[in-house]
Fold these 3 entries.
Entry 1:
Amino acid sequence: MTIEATRDSVVTEPKGFRSLPKHEPSAAPTIHPVWVRVTHWINAVAMLVMIGSGWEIYNASPLFPFTFPSSITLGGWLAGALLWHFAAMWVLAVNGLVYLLLGLLTGRFRRKLLPIRPGEVIADARAALGGRLAHDDLSVYNAVQKLLYLGVIISGIVIVASGLSIWKPVQLQELTALFGGYDTARFVHFFAMAAIVGFLVIHVVMAFVVPKSLRAMIIGR
Amino acid sequence: MPRLRKPIPGVDPKLLIKDAAKLLPDPTRRLFLRGGASLGALAFLSGCDIIDGPSAEKALMHISYFNDRAQAWLFNPNRLAPTYPESAITRPFPFNAYYPISDVPEVDGADYALEVGGLVDDKKTWTLAELYALPEETQITRHICVEGWSAIGKWSGVRLAEFLRRVGADTRAKYVWFRCAEGYSTSIDMATALHPQTQMTFKFDGEILPAKYGFPMKVRIPTKLGFKNPKHVMEMAVINNWNPGYWEEQGYNWFSGS
């Protein structure tokens, strides 16, 4: 007890000067709260299962003149892929709902993703392509990040809604009609997948370019 | 790519036969998760045998049974499948089966006698003449294949609910099971069997059902995927025991509602 008291008196800061308590290095500011990290990694696994099995399902009736090599699909054949797809959909949907609710209720989406100004997006995109965009402060997103994160959240909503409309074109026929009917909804579902996969490629590359961002998504800071 | 299927129906039957052959249950596919090396497996689960062991298959089947219950809950018995004008009918309507068109079962209409069994009062067999005399309804609805493609067709016949009433079926039973000429079988939930658009079909596009579409009788269920719409039906039974069907035993979801 006496030692604790002595230490406290030693590290007392001058009045009006606020900094992190020096005896508690673990109190570094949290960039990603635990709910963000947990939902992020659950989503990552669910998305990969949905994409891999979705490609195998696509191969049973391709929309375009190509199929996905079976070495990168999940499920082995159509029935196996459907089992994976309709299992992982629950994880994706429930986890996604939790993420959206917490993002809206805690104000994180508003704080982190808004506003997105076109001028800043263009300036930051130019800087990023020239390798001049700094990632010093991981707690603040640049305009390109804001656009991509908001874009992938919207793609996530579209892929779930279009998926539901393909799965239940009778019971949820209004939703299917909203996507322009069953056959069109399949294309919407495909393009939402393409958008998410495109995001994923940039996202993973950036995690390697800025490894501390990966660390922050694991340990929070 | 020669394997391209057109996105919108109008589908080349030759390609469909190829696909049907592709879907033949292959013994090597029986354990359908084996060899399913994947993005997910590579990225996260490599080294973990849960990805392709029988345990994963079992877990996935349990989730599939959960999905049966979820879909039964979602099924609204009064919700009708959308119907379409004559102009929307897909011509030619695709032939699709797990056998090539040259192997379509040929059933002799003259000898045909539909067997009706299980929990029904009247187990007499039904000739085609008797079946054709039942009140006829016509629907133009969308057939959706488990593979993803869809096609709009016109089917005529009697409501299965009306037929079940006439044979005194116990509609508190859980399932109606169908057996087909070539050995195919499937079963449906009673709620779907009683749905107003579930039809014992004798005509396609105003003509007696051709062999390739299921002569002499198919069961048309626009609230379920195509493989739940049996063709060449020889026998039906009202049952309470679990008897899922041909494709369902290969791993396709049993309820498969639309």
Entry 2:
Amino acid sequence: MNVEIVRGGGIAGVAVCSRLASDALPAPACRTFERLAAAVEPAGGLAAPHPDETTYRVTVDGVTATHTETTLPPPVRALIDFVSARPERREALLPPGLGL
Amino acid sequence: MAVCFIAPPDLLAYAIDEGDAAERAAALRAIAASAALRAQRQVVGALMRTLDVDVGALRLVPQLEESRRTVYDAEHGGRLELPGRLVRAEHDPPVADAAVNEAFDAAGTTYAFYRDVYGRDSIDGAGMELVSSVHYGVRYENAFWNGVQMVYGDGGDQLFVEGAFTRALDVIAHELTHGVTQYTAGLQYSLQPGALNESFSDVFGVLVKQYAAGAVADSDEAKWLVGAGALMPRWGRALRSLKAPGTAWEGDRQPATMDGYVDLPDDNDPRNDNGGVHVNSGIPNHAFYLAATALGGYAWERVGRVWYVTLTDRLGPSAQFADAAAATVDVARELFGGDVERAVTDAWTRVGVLA
């Protein structure tokens, strides 16, 4: 499985993209990762966020869910926290409007 | 009447206006529930304005008697744990946690600025309690106004120095000003209205900082930086510069004039910043800087007052840059005339908003 997480907004208005693939992980972590990723359900139609609120776009094998900090479902939060803690993730800073 | 929390605002408004006690209570509970979700700001803000409903009546956060400031410890929990555990209220002595005291003190400084300079009683103009939660999430790299309270992460992960959000008075004043905007102009957080929303927060963020320091308006850039020292040094010196937009940090793409306007879509893509609200705010930010430094003196006294009256009395949710420019010129003429009107007109002309 491949997961991409784009975190944007915030007081700086900057986006950070994190990517993690299951084949980069050791077996026990891989199982946890795939379980968390499978729990993410597609979601879209992000309404206007609160000022400076973090916005998230999580893509799991091409399926995308967009949320804000105040609407983030716990399963998506769990996946974000897992990816953020893994040293195998790849990350890039994206100033507003710059593509990947 | 069964009221689902996804009920549209006009239905909830009808229930509050026309319903019996049980229906009204159900509608208020529905608003409170939705306030934890995406519709929070839209629903709450609209109802506050149209129905004169006090946020305290919604019980979104605990309201303490005789309290102007409260700080809670989110204890690294998420949105479902807000506001967290109460750790300091008005008249309480400082606690051992620096973040708590910083959030408490900066909320007080911002409150005093609005009261003493513009006669405004808190965010809503009616004495609303200033609620802050610190230690939100785990190394969460942000601070934001969620429609009813301030939320501060600890930072220290990729971009921000640990503890940056509560240490920076201008950042806290910036966020609290988003609350003022919510209760006044209600500027939509998208495209040019969103950039104006951001700009007013930057302007009053630096004005609170200058007011606290007793600083006059001149070309010293330190006075015009937002969030100086908040970023890890490898990224840059501040989040934004009103004097020199686009130069504050490595990823700073802010234009200073309309020639550099960045046309980004508001398309739910986090990379596009709600249509560049933190990007194009550089233009009205720089207009304020030009007007304030042209006049000198204390910026909050004249140009700041012009911007305050414009925000609180002249603009609506969909205001564009041209609307803000025209309104500030009108207010400058009405309040001060002469040199202030000329300075404001010249500033908007130099950034390309007025011809």
Entry 3:
Amino acid sequence: MKRTTLFVLILLAVLFVACAPAPTPAPTAAPPTAAPKPTEAPKPAATQPPAPTTAPPQPTAAPKPTEAPKPTEAPKPTAVPPTATAVPVIPPGRVVVEFWHGLTKPLGDILEGVAADFNKSQDKYYVNANFKGAYPDTMNAAIAAFRAGKAPHIVQMFEVGTATMMAAKGAIKPVYELAKETGVNIDPKMYIPAVAGYYSLDGNMISMPLNSSTTIMYWNKDAFKKAGLDPEKPPKTWAELRTMAKQIVDSKASTCGFTTSWLTWAQFENFSAIHNVPLATKANGMLGMDAELKINSDLHIRHMQNLVDMQKEGSFKYGGRDAAPDALFPSGECAIIHASSGSRARYTTDSKFAWGAAMLPYYDDVPTAPKNSIIGGASLWVMTAPGRTVDEYKALGEFFRYISQPEQDAKWHQSTGYLPITIGGFDRTKAAGFYDKNPGADVPYMQLTRTQPTENSMGLRLGDMPAIRIVIYEEMEKAFQGQQTVKQALDNVVKRGNELLRAFEKLYK
Amino acid sequence: MRRRVVFNNRFLPYFLLAPQVAITIIFFFWPAGQAIYQSVLRQDPFGLRTKFVYLENFQAVLSDPLYIEAIQVTVIFSVSVTIFVMVVALLFAVMADRQIRGAQAYKTLLLWPYALAPAVAAVLWMFIFHPSIGVIGKALNNSGLPWDYHLNSVQAFVLVVIASSWKQIAHNFLFFLAGLQSVPIAVVEAALIDGASAWKLFRSILFPLISPTTFYLLTVNLVFAFFDTFGVIHALTRGGPGRSTTTLMYKAYMDGYVNLNLGESAAQSVILIIIVSVIVWAQFRYMEGKVHYT
């Protein structure tokens, strides 16, 4: 009988762990281990006698119960709810709106500072900004809250979640509608076209642009000098980049010539925009959910083959997914890196050598290149919930008007390192002499506004984009290991990516 | 021999049971029911459009070659972790069971890793084996041995197995040691008087006598490898490179939490429930008969 009990116990513990369909990545959130409590564990041994076939009782085989409990008591994981943080005192009589964001310190503090400044600037509304974890966590928190009828008024969502949010028609309130209802004027034309376009549908702004960045190139001037290259001349084309990276490695100026953060964002999404080739049909998904991936084109294959060849000759190093390779530049290991414009702050503090920032290179025999690059980052979405009042929407409209002012944008840009997203914000920053003091800080803006966006360089709106990025990583990692050719890898990406797109489309049919 | 407890009040036993039953229902049955319910639906993340699709999600999951791949990875991973953990822990326990100076300190030190969360353990291992910033990783590369678990599937797999095992070894060690210490000294002395070698003593006396402990640990370790290694994988490799460390658990997380495909993720969770129930049932059903209780 005890045996059955133990069986049921283990089964239940297992059920508990197994059923949570979405374990959070936070280390502490793991459910208590599936093991039965140590005090119970010895039982099967000690109480074995009831088992029909066995002979006399065997008390000795049991671990001493007194020893067991202590150490296992310790790791009982406790998931600390994020709400436990100190709540600021909200002045009475104000209309309060909740704002969930996904920016870690120090950027999150700056964002909460913006909300605090807004609260100080008037006495009718109060924006309560709270950190809810990294972007995917914030997204899941907002989804769960919406399902419970308690969605925050504003949620910050990363750019690759745009398609999911736009498709959630009953859950969000488009910014242009909010503006119309509250009489607040938010003119899309004050924004950089590549920013406004990313978050617009048929020319109407759906979400409020906030923190935007793009990928640019950083190079180590000291390593260039050591390799006998002109330290003031970064590579302009991919051919130059390869020759220089090789020379740097051959001359032992550094062990790695070139690496790239955000392989997907930099070498696929921005690469396609800059060369004016489609990442997907239907204007990269902006014109409909039935888009199909196009990243196994000759140019994409050529580019990835170039990276694989560079890896073979030792001038390129694959440093992992997302921003993991970022560390390879300030350490001096890699002399050239393609990374987010937002990495500038980190390189400024961490690098012990002279470096510069430049636009991404391109293949100069592609007649359509170079075009403007595209953005990454996040935007603000207005969420609906039962019982929203007109005043609450007015508060949101007022807050959005506040942050869209060029002087606010300029301040945000200069303090965070994100792009100025309004033309006025850039002009102000320039007039204040910021770029003279911080040479190269205007490179992302210049690259983003280099040309008028085409349908290939406006941005992208693909369902399940986070999943598609992972598919690209998986298949390219196999290609970098030599387990498959570049063509096979990209064909697989297209095949698997299209399956994801069709599954996403199906959800909304 | 069985003692029966008789309650005078008919409701008292139910009352005493209530807290446990409540916890079981709220934390075990309710989420499990939710998972089963979600697994037969196709639903957008916000729950705005819901469609009942019968077993389509299961069909999609089971016909997905990537899911089959994840099953293979999980089986190899779980078996590797279990064997590695138990062999090392048993070795440590046998060593610690002897009369040695500072045995207490030694035992205490061996238990420390168990107090760490898996993800923290993974970060510690990353500091050691990261190809650019890790102490050993860097040394390996400098000495001409190419080490990069971001790009080498085998190295990534080995690293994840070791990092997962490390903290579980402490737990196993404790149980093996307790098991060894409760073997009657008379039996051991009798064997020694008969001239048994150390190996013979272990093989014929100690190992059979601690087999209930071994059996229990086997179950716990398999379940641990299945479900509790998420933090390690997430912190070290995120399932890569390629899909070489994507276990069933990690895939369910990716599909549900990152890709927001709730239906298929729930279907995977239900399959996991079934798989692990079968494992535990099979172990109790078949393995127990082979355990020595003499």
